[in-house]
Amino acid sequence: MVRIGQKTYQNQDYKNIFAVGIAFAPPGFMSKPFVSSKGVTIAPAIPRTGYTSELTGKAAALNIAEMIQGREPCHTASMAETAGMCIASLKNSLFKGSACTIGIYPIVRNRERFPEHNGRDIKAATVELGLAGAWFKRVLHHAFLHKLAGKPMWKYIP
Fold this sequence. Notes:
5 strands; 2 domains; single chain
């Protein structure tokens, strides 16, 4: 069995190997499928976004640089310390569109840090429904395509 460092993404048996990204099944409630009272399967999952991969990849790259310089890896990334955002389109229209915008912190519940609200910072959690979310999703979509195509000023798009 391969063991990976919890926050450094370093293989604990082979120290020169790192694993980053979002292709994993965390133990516990984040991977355990449930069934609703009506028999519908509910399969919770970690957000499949580039942001999570970017954080873990950056931590691993910095740790590799530390190792090359003869130091121990010290850079970390944790979804229990990372915010998440989702924009789900409901109607695709410039004037009658709608989207549900959801923001949570942290992505994976941190019950030690936020025990009073079941592991989440209630001040950093929000759900909004409306036309603004539809416009926001459209802008993000076009910005992503602009960046992907390497068009002028693409480096300034986060």
